[in-house]
Amino acid sequence: MTDEGQPDKLDALYPVGEKQPERVRTRHGRPLADLTLDNLLAGHVTASDFGITAEGLRLQAAIAERAGRPNLARNLRRGAELVEIPDDVLLEIYEQLRPGRAHSADDLRATAERLRQSYGAKETATLIEEAAVAYERRGIFQRRF
Amino acid sequence: MADADANRWARYDLWDERHLSLDRFAVEDPENGFCAAASPRDPKPSLVIGNGLIVEMDGVPAADFDMIDEFIARHYFDLTVAETAMAIDSREFAQMLVDVAVPRERLVKLSAGMTPAKLAEVLGHLNTLELAFANTKLRCRRQPSNQAHVTNAKDDPVQMAADAATAALYGFDEIETTVRVARNGRTNAIACAVGAAVVRDGVLIQCSLEEAEELRIALAGFTSYTETLSVYGTEATFLDGDDTPWSKTFLTAVYASRGLKARCTSGSSAELLMGFHEGKSMLYLEARCVCLQRAMGVQGTQNGGIDGAPLTSSVPGGGWELLAENVLAALLDLECASGNDTRHSESEIRIGAKIMPFLMSGTDFICSGFGSIPKYDNSFNASLFNAEELEDFLALQREFQVEGGLQHVPEEQLLAARARAIEAIMAVLETLNLGRLSEAQKKSVLYAHGSDETDSFAPGEVAGMNAALVEQHITFVDVVRALAARGFATEAARLLSMARQRITGDYLQTAAIIRDGRVVSAVNDPNRYSGPGTGYIMTDERRQAISWMRNEVSERDVLAREGATGQQESRHWRLEAKGEAGPGDDPREVVIGISPGFGLRLHKTTGGVPLYKVLAALLEGIREGGGHPRVVRVRHTADTSFLGLTAARLAGSGVGIGIQGKGTTVIHRHDQAPHMNLELFSQAPLISEADYRTIGCNAARYALGQSPVPVMIPYRGQALGARFHVQTALLYAIETSLIEAGRNPEKLEVEFYDGRRATR
After folding, report:
1. What are chain B's domains?
2. Is A63 on the interface with B (CB under 8 A)?
3. Which of the residues A137, B265, B272, B578 could staple to B747 if both were Cys, CB 3.0 to 4.6 A apart?
4. Residue A3 pLDDT > 90, yes or no?
5. How many inter-chain contacts (A to B, CB under 8 Å) are there?
């Protein structure tokens, strides 16, 4: 819930790219201003520059929180935890979370542990542990194909 | 003639031929899932909290929660308001939804304390009008917007780029594409992105595919959002959708982690179509879906039936239910792409009616896929509105002054953008060695309405391009380079600008679109409607943009047309004024009183008959009937009745004909009241030259004291007002401007030139 004072603060901050672009960096630490066509054509900037950073997502999470959207903020914070995880690892975890892919709660718990240990993804790990319990109770580990 | 052996009312035969007869209507049957709201199997709202945990929700104890219940119980509720919210009488809360004095924020806050059954019960108290009004107040973003489907039957990237440019010009802020052949996603996405970039910066692109494949294409930078995170209202359906609330929540976070906008999809009848509805009502199951979505933390939803809309529409209250779903999403503070993306009926009346509450209230995206391409090219299936009906949609916006996100585009601008989009996508395909086209092939796309008319890439060639794109790990950077290398610097810069949005993440906030390179979302453009004069109000500029229609008629057009016709036809006749006209004494005399502009400024009836032929036919008819015609020009009035009565009072027989330049005619008698005539022919567009002859003949017979059979102008129910009244009003205004009050009628000498000979 926003109180009377907060919309002004949001006005000064959001959209970040317009109001405070200096707060945003690329994943290689470059400022937004470096992402020009010339730099791209010259090869100074590559595809991997065009990703959001964990800090960038946490900033958006704070904005969402301030705008009265705690659930969206939680999602963006989970996103922040996943920024550094390679695409194929994420796709693999997603696959494992789909019905009937993992065979037991332990499989999911192992994934949660790996997320926590290797990437510090605590909130996501908690979510997956929660899934492990729910899947077991509801028989989601049952083979589907 | 009616068939003497008919065994049923003949009107059923007609009704059976109408498009509506193709629609199927289902018997309301809650047990079998055919129930819009309030099924006997819907639970009664309840929420029991113990030690900060939900121990019972909507009559189900925690131990029996299915995975949807459990996810909602764990992640949805704001426990600080739950008790208060659940205690509010549902009808009272429904009242608050339509009370402009209750701010949206308060309603959103309280909704976080209400269970799905409670929310469904609340919505059940609102009628369609109230739902639309609630939507006006509850939608997230102040400024409404619209989304286009851009697909084609061949997955042809060249047509797709041209059509994406077209969609961007018409005003769509999002473009959603999908494929005919599963592996063609990359060329579709690239083509849409490049085509839209020809027109402007900021059109968001989506390529709807299997979840993992869609994500891969987004990761390559070709798309900027997704809306295929499907969720369902029953557990068994969810599992057949091959996901769980947790897998979908994880995927939502993955999209965020790559700076991609995401919204979920749900919609009534999905559970019914997929076989696991549990006998629950559509609205209750959808309430579960939207609660789940807010619990997941996704910023928005695409709901309102979607693929299930035709099925929902088959039950009583179906249209009401679809609207209620969207209002629920708005109440839960989710960006709402409000369906209207499936042809729910074959009846154009039902289609026009379906869109109205949405156009009136405005939503974040009026259609979650307006078919900007022909129906047959729509790879999602026909949308509610399609390329065929786009101008109908524009007419609705214009007529009711409502914001549907679109506007007309002048043809030169349209063709220029299409041409450039074709060149731009070819620059990319050629640079990446994916394909070439001849000039003739490109031109076939430029002017094409749809893929039936194109001679571009064949489906096999497109599949080859996609294989190469995967193999060579092509990303958006390669596309930007190709564009820049071939002189498309503006387009390259626009694609780059879209990619930069992924770094700031501003468009991850609720209901974000990008206008003029600026992110506009519920954060910096929140909807704070609180009654007349608040919320979204069109600027004068925008009002003008939505008010322009192709082929609009103006006074200048009508005058120019009349002027040209007059010049062409002056060689056929001559009307010469010969002083004031007095009363006649010949008992066989019939006077024709022509209007002030007849043959002077106006030259053709609205039925397209030249006035010299009209007058000639009347004269011939009078003679044929045994009368003696005389022509006068009436100066003091242009009204048909008074023209006729003036003529009748001058005629020796007491019978006259009044006629206006647009062709409206009356037969009058001197002793009648002005508007009580002998015969009136008000449907000028339908009166033929032969009819005018018969009218003349009848007038003569009245003059001779006979009782002729009245002239019947055949009318087949045409909307004459719609077709002709603009022109009619403008033509008549010309006549009334020539009126000179108090001036007497003039004698006229009429000569017709038929080849060499002049006839009187």
Report:
1. 147-524 (3.20.20.350), 555-759 (3.40.50.10150)
2. yes
3. B578
4. no
5. 208
Residue A60, chain B, CB below 8 Å: the answer is: yes
Using CA atoms, how far apart are residues B414 and A81, in angstroms rounded to an integer?
45
Secondary structure class of B646 (helix, strand, coil): helix
Cα B300–chain centre separation = 24
- Determine which helix (DSSP H) or strand (DSSP E) holds B758, and give its type and residue range: strand B757-759
Q: Rounded to whole angstroms, how far apart are CA atoms B321 and B341?
A: 16
Separation of alpha carbons B207 and B225, rounded Å: 8
pLDDT at B561: 86
b (16+ CB within 10 A) / e for B263-273: bbbbbbbbbbe
Say how many residues make up chain B: 760
Same domain, A76 and A118: no
CA dist., res. A26 & res. B264, Å (int): 28
Q: A88-116: per-residue pLDDT in tens?
A: 999 999 999 999 999 999 999 999 999 99
Same domain for A3 and A51: yes
Only one residue has tokens 């798309």, namely B223
Domain that holds residue A52: 1-83
- A contact test, residue of B60, B108, B201, B257 with most A CBs within 10 A: B257
How close, in Å, is residue B258 to chain A by CA atoms? Answer: 6
What is the rounded distance in angstroms from the CA atom of residue B661 to the CA atom of residue B666? 13
CA distance B683 to A84: 75
pLDDT higher than threshold 90 for residue A145:
no
Return the CATH number at A91. Answer: 1.10.1510.20
Residue ranges, chain B, pLDDT below 70: 1-3, 755-760
Unique residue bearing structure tokens 């920024």:
A83
Does residue A60 share a domain with residue A72? yes
DSSP B564: H
pLDDT of res. A8? 54
Same structural domain for residues A140 and A101?
yes
Place of tokens 């869609």: B214
**Distance of CA B495 to CAs B245, B256, B397, B654, Å?**
34, 20, 31, 80
A115 and A104 in a common domain? yes
- 3-state SS assignment for residue B592: strand
- The reply to whether A18 and A63 lie within a common domain is yes
State whether residue A61 sits within 8 Å of chain B by CB: no
Contact B155, B347 (CB under 8 A): no
Residue B647: beta bridge partners? none
- The minimum CA-CA distance between A70 and chain B, rounded to whole Å, is 8
Tokens 């055919």 appear where? B34
**Which residues of B are known catalytic residues?**
147, 149, 176, 227, 302, 341, 368
Nearest CA among B327, B268, B267, B285 for reference residue B43: B285
The token duo for B359 is 């156009």
pLDDT at A5: 38
One-letter amino acid for residue B599 of the chain = G
Q: Is A111 on the interface with B (CB under 8 A)?
A: no
**Is the bond preceding residue A15 a cis peptide, omega within 30 degrees?**
yes
ipTM: 0.96
Q: For chain A, what is the domain count?
A: 2
Pairing of strands B746-754, B573-580: antiparallel
Q: What are phi and psi of B432, to 5 degrees?
A: -90, 10
pLDDT surpasses 70 at A7: no
Tell me the sheet residues that pair with B57: B47, B60
Instruction: Find the CB nearest A98 among B243, B253, B521.
Output: B243
Q: Which amino acid is at B112?
A: A
Dist CA A46 CA B477 (whole Å): 7
Domain boundary, last residue among A33, A64, A83: A83
DSSP string for residues in B252-310:
HHHHHHTT-EEEEE--TTHHHHTT--TT--HHHHHHHHHHHHHHHT-SEEE-SSGGGHH
Domain end among A83, A102, A134: A83
pLDDT of residue B567: 85
Query: Do A4 and A74 share a domain, yes or no?
Result: yes
* DSSP states of B84-134: HHHHS-HHHHHHHHT-TTS-HHHHHHHHTT--HHHHHHHHTT--HHHHHHH
